[in-house]
Amino acid sequence: MYVLAATNMNDIMESVPSVILSIIFSWKVVIIMFDIKKVKYCLQSIEKDWQLLNTNTERTILQRHAEYGQFLATAYAIFVHVMQICYILKPIIPRLLDNDITNSTKPIPKLVYPVEYGVDIDQYFYPISIHCYLALFAHSFGTIAVDILYCILIQHACGMFTIIEHILEEVGKDNNANFQFKLNKTTDIDYKKALNCLRKHLQVIKFVESIESVFTKVFLISVNLNVICGSISGIQVILNLDNPGTILTPLALYTGQLGHLFIQFWQAQFILDYSTIPWESM
């Protein structure tokens, strides 16, 4: 209805990003709800991995990655909230700066979402704006939760790969002069370490496959719509370079989409880089 209600190209350019953002945010939450069993498996795997750590060094490694994931989650949440605050300032700032609120010849102020409530928007501007802001924050909290979950899962997988590297590097360090070719598998320390690495590696591979299974469907729609939304917002930024009063909203959208895409691709590159660590340590 946003797009159908638009009367000119400018209205369409302003309406389409709002529609796209709503679809992206809703799609993420829906996919997580449908794949809740796989998400639950991932969270249970994290708990199990913490319980099976054998040394303080392993705990330190995993703790370091967990803290880094927490830092990324906090920074990303702050970034998204700053962008959405910039996004909602456009309709409210001219209203607050305008002293002549009784002038009926003024154009009707635009809302964050181009909605139609069937009432006088100018008269009920603030109640309608509050409703729009609540809807925007509800959508953003949903997408923040999904993206933070993605970062935390990826960082845990990276931590497990690092632990496997550490264990492999310890294999053979306890050898002594009494080395024998016919080893007793039940008592040989290096054999137990190698077997432990194999088990952990199989578990983390299954863990990563579960992440891929869930978030491939999320990114299938999210990334494509992010690119479209970012392109439209970029065009609006270019068209409004000479008009600082209207550039804030498309600029916030454009920056937000770039940040959104960056965090997704960056974390994916993390898992690609760390997955090769066990092979390099051998």
TrEMBL record:
Q: Which domain of life is it from?
A: Eukaryota
Q: Does the keyword Membrane apply?
A: yes
**Primary location:** membrane
Zinc is among the record's keywords: no
Membrane topology according to the record: Multi-pass membrane protein
Segments traversing the membrane: 12-34, 71-93, 124-153
- Could you tell me which Pfam families the record lists for this protein? 7tm_6
Q: Which GO terms describe its molecular function?
A: odorant binding; olfactory receptor activity
Q: Which GO terms describe its cellular component?
A: plasma membrane
Q: Name one GO biological process term.
A: signal transduction
**Keyword set for this entry?**
Cell membrane, Membrane, Olfaction, Receptor, Sensory transduction, Transducer, Transmembrane, Transmembrane helix
Cellular compartments annotated = Cell membrane
- Listed name of the protein: Uncharacterized protein LOC105422557
Name of the coding gene: LOC105422557
